[in-house]
Design goal:
This protein has 6 helices and 7 strands. The chain has 229 residues and is α+β, with helices and mostly antiparallel strands.
């Protein structure tokens, strides 16, 4: 009497034989008439060919879903690229810091339909021109946010900002997910924060290339106006 180990070894040998000889049933087509594979959970039997067709259909359906997801992602990336291009043009044309910050707020609130857009920039000497975006380089929100981001964009639920007190301000109550982007140039540092009511809008692990590019554009535009003689 064969034991469980012998049965598994025999089954593995049959499986290996069929994999190594995919034309086996072409040479033994009489077997196709007698082979039956039960439908899981239904107790009915189906021929091997019917089973193969079902498996192929499942695989094709899976590949079609993957293709649709790929195309959807490509369309989203194309739309983001276009928005980033328009922003770059607007920042080049910006005649003042008001225009620079206004372009970022417009992108976040009107084009990306986000619920919160926060800019914090550390400037030596404290607030500049009375703008809320400018804070001391020692500002607690700025230091905590930069320590959390570690020089890279960070996305996830609002709870990732648990150690950064008051960064979202009045919008904190309606925000469920956030994207935190550190801003740096040779003499300044800051933070750009996007927030959404949708808990899944900024999932952990989402690509952050566009956030990094956005941060670079913003800091170049800010520096161009602050460093004027």
């Amino acid at each position: 009497m064969k034991g469980p180990t012998e049965d598994r070894s025999w089954e593995a040998g049959v499986a290996r034989l069929l994999r190594e000889n995919p034309d086996y049933f072409e040479r033994h087509d009489d077997l196709l008439e007698v082979l039956r594979i039960p439908h899981r959970g239904r107790g009915l039997a189906t021929s091997l060919i019917e089973k193969q067709v079902a498996v192929l259909r499942e695989r094709l359906a899976l590949r079609d879903r993957e293709r649709q997801n790929f195309l959807a992602t490509a369309r989203e990336n194309d739309a983001l690229s276009e928005k980033l291009h328009r922003l770059a043009v607007a920042l080049i044309d910006a005649a003042s810091l008001d225009d620079v910050f206004g372009s970022i707020y417009d992108l976040g609130r009107n084009q990306l339909k986000l619920d919160a857009v926060v800019i914090v920039l550390g400037i030596d000497g404290g607030p500049l021109n009375g703008r809320a975006e400018f804070v001391s380089p020692d500002d607690a929100r700025l230091r905590q946010g930069l320590a959390l981001a570690r020089d890279r964009p960070l996305c996830g639920p609002k709870t990732i900002l648990a150690t950064v007190r008051g960064l979202l301000g009045a919008d904190e109550g309606r925000v469920a997910s956030v994207a935190l982007t550190p801003l740096r140039d040779p003499v300044r540092s800051g933070l750009l924060v996007f927030g959404s009511q949708d808990p899944g809008h900024f999932p952990v692990g989402i690509g952050t290339v566009y956030l990094s590019r956005l941060g670079e554009l913003l800091m170049r535009a800010v520096a161009r106006h602050l460093d004027r003689p």
